Amino acid sequence: MIEANLLLQYNAEILNVEKDTSIFDYGSKAQFYFQIKSGEVKMNNINRGGKEFIQGIFYAGQSFGEPPLFVDVSYPAGAEAITDAEIYRLPKSDFFNLLQQHPEAHFKLSEVLASRLYYKAIMASEISSQDPEHRIIRLLDYTKKYIQKMETYETLQVDLTRQQIADLTGLRVETVIRACKALEKMGKLKIRKGKIFR
């Protein structure tokens, strides 16, 4: 994403966020650009029944929560640290100045946002119509290609928990466990010592 020295040059501060701490809440006004220096962050919604739906999980070097900055709306999801994290926080006006003065950073951000939009479009159709096994494979393949930047022939050790896979695909944990066992029998993934490999 945006180089750390550039963020700091434009007045970014580094937040130290403890695990399970909220970074921003659903419905709050977007006022900052966030980029992870270390740790993991999830963006999520909680429905009326208390079930969590994870919109995305973000890792070191990735940004999160940018779209509302561009359209001046409130956050459609909350953000929370999954682990202890260090996060660059850059005020909106400084962020826009950075993008105007560094078009290469703007282009890179546009590329990332387009990739996320593509993922959302795919997952929306998967969740509405596909069986659990298909949803899980699509999620793992997206993670492998776009998050971990791995080649098809390489083996991904999935660092998502069964609960996170469920929350990312709109499934129940029990369904994820059954579907993963079925996928292993089909030869589409391997499970070793509780870890999933694709």
TrEMBL record:
<dbReference type="InterPro" id="IPR000595">
    <property type="entry name" value="cNMP-bd_dom"/>
</dbReference>
<dbReference type="InterPro" id="IPR014710">
    <property type="entry name" value="RmlC-like_jellyroll"/>
</dbReference>
<dbReference type="InterPro" id="IPR036390">
    <property type="entry name" value="WH_DNA-bd_sf"/>
</dbReference>
<dbReference type="InterPro" id="IPR018490">
    <property type="entry name" value="cNMP-bd_dom_sf"/>
</dbReference>
<feature type="domain" description="Cyclic nucleotide-binding">
    <location>
        <begin position="1"/>
        <end position="116"/>
    </location>
</feature>
<keyword id="KW-0804">Transcription</keyword>
<dbReference type="InterPro" id="IPR012318">
    <property type="entry name" value="HTH_CRP"/>
</dbReference>
<feature type="domain" description="HTH crp-type">
    <location>
        <begin position="130"/>
        <end position="198"/>
    </location>
</feature>
<dbReference type="Pfam" id="PF00027">
    <property type="entry name" value="cNMP_binding"/>
</dbReference>
<dbReference type="Pfam" id="PF13545">
    <property type="entry name" value="HTH_Crp_2"/>
</dbReference>
<keyword id="KW-0805">Transcription regulation</keyword>
<protein>
    <submittedName>
        <fullName>Crp/Fnr family transcriptional regulator</fullName>
    </submittedName>
</protein>
<keyword id="KW-0238">DNA-binding</keyword>
